[in-house]
Design a protein that fits this description.
Layout (H helix, E strand, L loop, with lengths): L1 H10 L3 H23 L2 E13 L5 E3 L6 E9 H8 L7 E4 L8 E3 L4 H5 L5 E6 L3 E3 L2 E12 L11 E3 L4 E3 L2 E7 H4 L6 E2 L11 E6 L8 E2 L3 E6 L1 E16 L13 E9 L5 H5 L2 E5 L7 E4 L2 E3 L6 E5 L2 E4 L1
Parallel strand pairs: 1-4, 8-12, 16-18
Antiparallel strand pairs: 1-3, 2-8, 3-6, 5-7, 8-11, 9-16, 10-15, 11-14, 13-15, 16-17, 17-21, 18-20, 19-22
Length: 313
């Protein structure tokens, strides 16, 4: 018990003594740390990588390599600053003919990097090969178009105007071979669904090539939409270019039709203005069924069904 009490007495410090012990420990650690940094070490460090080329006339296809790993020897202070990012400038690889260089062997970069790393000796370039893809920068104007909005409209509704794209052209820039692959006109995709009224919105220009930039990210797209009404009725029948020696070629004066019309045109006045025309210009005689052609059909209207008529000469 006496031995245990003796050890306990040794460890029984006053609170102020513990502060002194901690300060001594910190001071010793700092001294050791600074002393260690004055020695020479060998280690591996990853450095940011940059490329020097004419960026006005050349552009990268894809992402260029961003890092290179080097095995270096140097003073602890210098290694500490570069390892922690305190002093980690990018190492630059100059490219006089960017489009001609497709890969660079890492071992060939030692001399170029040595001139950029004052205070460090490069033992090895650990990155084996650096692959590049740079190409001449090109630009061209492309047209923009919305071909169809059939699947964007609410069921039972239809387009009742032209589709306006403003502006209808944009300038694209990027690597020559990628720019050449962009089709013109380029088809825009309308993101909205179940549209049942006038549409005015900014639509994104989403090229499938990330290397290509566009002079503007969006364009305005506008068009009108109305409910489509189906009407079954009969309309006046008219025969044209009847041979002079023939007085009558058919008994019918009206023909049944089924029409799909925008709601704004679905009125008796519009139906009364329609004419089903049968043209006999090229008719050679005999008996033949002919399908009339409707005149005065309103814009954005369609003929769902129309009966054929029998012509006899």
């Amino acid at each position: 018990m006496g031995i245990i009490n003796s050890i306990a007495n040794i460890l029984r410090f006053h609170r102020r003594n513990w502060k002194a012990v901690v300060l001594c420990f910190v001071a010793a650690t700092v001294f050791w740390f600074f002393n260690a940094l004055n020695k020479t070490y060998t280690t591996t460090i990853t450095f940011p990588l940059a490329f020097g080329y004419d960026e006005e006339n050349f552009v990268a296809v894809g992402n260029l390599p961003e890092q290179v790993r080097l095995n270096v020897t140097g003073n602890g202070w210098e290694l500490f600053k570069r390892s922690t990012g305190v002093k980690r400038e990018s190492l630059e690889i100059p490219l006089e003919r960017p489009a001609e260089v497709k890969k660079i062997v890492g071992s060939g970069l030692k001399f170029s990097f040595t001139n950029q790393l004052n205070g460090l000796e490069i033992n090895h370039v650990l990155t084996d090969t650096i692959y590049l893809d740079l190409e001449t920068k090109a630009e061209r104007w492309i047209k923009l178009r919305v071909d169809s909005v059939q699947y964007n409209l609410r069921k039972g509704y239809g387009l009742t105007s032209d589709i306006a794209v403003i502006p209808d052209s944009v300038l694209i820039q990027g690597p020559q071979r990628i720019v050449d692959r962009v089709k013109s006109p380029f088809r825009l995709a309308i993101p909205q669904r179940n549209i049942d009224e006038q549409y005015i919105a900014d639509v994104a220009i989403e090229l499938p090539f990330p290397e290509v930039t566009v002079s503007r990210p969006t364009v305005s797209v506008m068009f009108n939409v109305e409910e489509i009404v189906t009407i079954s009725d009969s309309i006046r029948l008219e025969v044209t270019n009847i041979p002079p020696e023939v007085n009558d070629v058919m008994n019918a004066v009206r023909v049944p039709v089924v029409l799909a019309l925008p709601e704004s045109y679905a009125s008796p006045a519009v139906i009364d203005s329609l004419v089903a025309v049968v043209d006999l210009r090229d008719f050679q005689g005999g008996t033949e069924k002919k399908l009339p052609r409707i005149q005065n059909l309103p814009p954005y209207s369609t003929v769902v069904r129309i009966d054929s008529v029998v012509v006899s000469l």
